[in-house]
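Customer escalation, tier 2.

The customer says the design service returned an amino acid string that "doesn't look like it belongs to this structure." They asked us to rerun it and document both sides in this ticket. The original structure tokens are below, unchanged.
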């Protein structure tokens, strides 16, 4: 009996934390859309506990269920934009995400967009903005077309926010996440918010606002309250959302100068083995081309940078301590680099390995080893700055940056892959010196119009700011976070 009471208390505490996070997202979204005609969603809750049955399960309305009613798609334009996104835009934003035939491919996206109004509106907004930036033909986008696309994007963003408020309000009132349908309901809303976050990472650059941080902060809490396996029809969407969120959490922590908040879940989700052959629940290589250990390395360095900032603020930083902590991270990354180089197969698969997935994914998969190497060496360069301070002319830093430039150059024929490397390019670009500056500019030019889209546009602006102010930099106070915030607001380079 005592154990059952304790479990109920824990469940209710978890529910309050989750609802608090959801309410915070909704409050911020309302603040963002102040002035627009968006109906308010009541989130008032009674102080009384909801009825609990004998099993400790509270009754709640089924806001979403496995049986989705027919969707009113309106005109054909929604479907048109959805297919543009799936066929043309998504492969540019996530070129490495190519689920196998047996995994269902990307069919989950079409199902989610058709049955989820928030995701449908967000997709249309993102597609409209993309078409206003990246031309469909090898000529500049006409101004009238770009203007119309931007206007449609704003309208769809407003609709997406309105629908998301309704989803969040229903989730708050829906009771605890203790039944399969409730867990599914939570997962669908989480997928919708992650999709909006992916859109905000691009749209916020266009509008010059850090609105991505609002959504991400609430998402971190929501995800941390629901990090347990969900194996159902929405598994593919959930896995994509969790993977995307984990990466965003790591990269946002650099700009926000905090440790990654989802780090406690890395071991369970991403694994902690130096062997690439070791099976894990989620392989980021399938999402962004980078193996888990390399992305975790960036997160570990970011956590060290946040710790150093606290020690400097308190006046308790000891050089020996930060060097020790840094050496532990460096040794871990270099050990895994050795294993990676020994176990990475050649680009050409054996004849017996050919399948339909080999033919469709072969061209993009050949870049995965380079992408993992780029993230690993980015972590090492970032670590040098955190441990030893800002010293772009230091021999070791120059050698490390030159290594990165060489790796980027090997991807010059893959602009969509380069476009996914905004953070590594920012790190290398801010520290590049001498003749490598020209090589860096050439790499950016190879992306064409993609260099003006989303996080890559911020990367170019950040690097230009750093070069412009190089003679006025105070090495003692210059950090990677200072560079990433030089636009006047924190950026999420993903």
């Amino acid at each position: 009996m005592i154990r059952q009471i304790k479990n109920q208390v824990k469940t209710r505490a978890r529910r309050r934390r989750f609802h608090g996070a959801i309410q915070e997202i909704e409050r911020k979204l309302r603040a963002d859309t102040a002035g627009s005609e968006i109906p308010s969603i009541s989130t008032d809750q009674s102080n009384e506990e909801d009825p609990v049955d004998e099993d400790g399960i509270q009754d709640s309305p089924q806001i979403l269920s496995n049986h989705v009613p027919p969707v009113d798609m309106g005109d054909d334009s929604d479907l048109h934009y959805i297919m543009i996104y799936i066929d043309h835009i998504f492969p540019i934003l996530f070129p490495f995400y190519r689920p196998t035939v047996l995994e269902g491919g990307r069919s989950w996206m079409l199902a989610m967009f058709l049955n989820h109004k928030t995701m449908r509106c967000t997709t249309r907004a993102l597609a409209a903005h993309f078409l206003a930036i990246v031309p469909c033909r090898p000529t500049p986008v006409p101004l009238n077309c770009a203007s119309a696309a931007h206007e449609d994007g704003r309208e769809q963003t407003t609709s997406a926010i309105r629908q998301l408020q309704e989803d969040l309000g229903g989730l708050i009132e829906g009771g605890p996440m203790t039944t399969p349908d409730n867990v599914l309901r939570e997962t669908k809303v989480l997928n919708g918010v992650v999709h909006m976050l992916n859109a905000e990472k691009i749209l916020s650059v266009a509008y010059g606002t850090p609105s991505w941080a609002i959504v991400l902060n609430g998402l971190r809490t929501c995800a941390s309250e629901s990090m347990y396996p969900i194996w159902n029809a929405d598994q593919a969407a959930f896995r994509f959302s969790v993977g995307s969120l984990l990466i965003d959490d790591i990269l946002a922590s650099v700009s926000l100068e905090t440790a990654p908040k989802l780090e406690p879940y890395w071991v369970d989700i991403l694994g902690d083995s130096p062997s690439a052959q070791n099976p894990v629940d989620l392989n980021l290589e399938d999402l962004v081309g980078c193996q888990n250990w390399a992305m975790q390395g960036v997160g570990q360095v970011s956590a060290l940078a946040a710790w150093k900032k606290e020690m400097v603020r308190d006046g308790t930083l000891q050089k020996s301590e930060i060097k020790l902590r840094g050496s532990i991270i460096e040794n871990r990354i270099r050990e895994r680099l050795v294993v990676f180089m020994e176990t990475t197969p050649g680009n050409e698969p054996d004849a017996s390995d050919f399948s339909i997935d080999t033919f469709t994914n072969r061209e993009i998969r050949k870049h995965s080893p380079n992408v993992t190497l780029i993230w690993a060496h980015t972590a090492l360069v970032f670590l040098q700055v955190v441990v030893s301070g800002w010293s772009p002319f230091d021999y070791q830093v120059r050698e490390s940056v030159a290594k990165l430039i060489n790796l980027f150059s090997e991807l010059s024929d893959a602009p969509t892959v380069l476009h996914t490397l905004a953070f590594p390019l920012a790190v290398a670009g801010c520290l590049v010196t001498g003749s490598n500056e020209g090589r860096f500019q050439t790499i950016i030019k190879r992306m064409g119009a993609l260099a003006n889209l989303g996080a890559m546009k911020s990367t170019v602006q950040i690097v230009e700011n750093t070069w412009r102010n190089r003679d006025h930099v105070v090495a003692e106070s210059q950090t990677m976070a200072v560079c990433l915030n030089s636009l006047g607001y924190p950026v999420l380079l993903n």
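Tier 2 assessment: The sequence is consistent with the input. Residues 35-70, 225-233, 274-278 have pLDDT under 50 and may be disordered. The chain has two domains: 2-37+74-233, 264-344+363-484. Sent an explanation to the customer and offered a walkthrough call.
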